[in-house]
Design a protein that fits this description.
By secondary structure, the chain is an alpha/beta fold. 43% of the residues lie in helices and 24% in strands. The chain is elongated, with a radius of gyration of 24 Å. The relative contact order is 0.14.
């Protein structure tokens, strides 16, 4: 039996903590996964995993062996990647996950340029604002903003965006302008349900003091682009990042209602699995995004 393949299977089982997820991601049968694990345990003369009908747990020996396997597999990948860089153009499938609105507005044009530069790299793009499990999903790179949570991945900052409270001229004509943040309680606010607390809006005044107000309104949605369209139609006030609203403020279709306040700041990150080495195509896309988003102005 191929020991290197057995190591790959063991690492996948270790990372996913599941025989089923390992078999699905590697496209081999579950009995074959079991055979590979049994083979390694017989070779080592020690248990790597404790398993029952419901779950598995990693033994002390299994944890140690995983570190050695990763080092060996990464060294092989590095050697193959280095030789490949000398002899071949980068190619293969690269699975990425991007936020819906930011992805459509700013990443799609960049990914088009990346594809023209590296036409043999196939981009499999998932549009989602939800957190992604880097182990179970098989995603190579995810672009996410805000509080990422967890430490099971590496995060590389790409660019920053800031929240803006705004509404259409029609809405302002009907309901009046804002004198201060406290007046938001008297207005119809369009709430973003993916926020940690959708109706709690916080901004910082000119003296650097953070203020928070509890808002309410007739519309709640999990998509900032949809909320922006509601605001453009005069249905309420939104608190959305400038990458969504800056062009409408510039055109006069939306008005910044609290220009003396600073809204929340979002950092967009490229996140990827916590591995020592990465494939060449992954590294190329990371470097490309970092270079082209670092100085972006919304």
């Amino acid at each position: 039996m191929d020991k290197l393949q057995a190591m790959k299977v063991f690492c996948r089982v270790y990372e996913a903590e599941s025989f089923k997820l390992a078999s699905d991601s590697l496209d081999i049968s579950r009995p074959m996964v079991t055979r590979y694990i049994n083979f390694l345990e017989e070779e080592l003369g020690s248990k790597l995993l404790h398993r029952n009908t419901r779950n598995i747990s990693i033994t002390h020996v299994g944890r140690k062996y995983y570190q050695h396997c990763i080092a060996i597999l990464d060294a092989i990948e590095e050697a193959e990647s280095e030789i490949g860089e000398l002899t071949q153009k980068p190619k293969g499938l690269l699975k990425i996950s991007v936020p819906m609105d930011f992805g459509l507005s700013y990443l799609i044009p960049l990914l088009d340029r990346f594809n023209r530069q590296y036409p043999q790299i196939v981009l499999d793009i998932d549009f989602s604002d939800k957190r992604v499990d880097m182990t179970e999903s098989g995603v190579d790179i995810a672009i996410r903003g805000g509080d990422l949570g967890g430490d099971q991945f590496v995060a590389r900052p790409l660019c920053y965006s800031r929240g803006v409270v705004c509404a259409s001229p029609d809405y302002i004509a009907k309901h009046g302008e804002l004198d201060c943040i406290e007046n938001l309680v008297d207005h119809s606010c369009l709430l973003y349900s993916n926020a940690l607390i959708a109706n709690r809006w916080s901004l910082t005044d000119e003296e650097g003091v953070s203020q928070t107000v509890t808002t309410s309104g007739a519309f709640i949605a999990n998509n900032g682009g949809a909320l922006t369209r509601f605001a453009l139609a005069g249905l309420g006030i939104i608190y959305q990042p400038d990458f969504l609203v800056a062009k409408y403020i510039k055109s006069g279709e939306l008005v910044n209602l609290l220009p003396k306040y600073k809204g929340y700041e979002i950092c967009f990150y490229a996140i990827y699995p916590q591995r020592k080495l990465m494939s060449r195509k992954t590294r190329l896309l990371l470097d490309f995004l970092e270079k082209n988003l670092a100085d972006i102005k919304f």
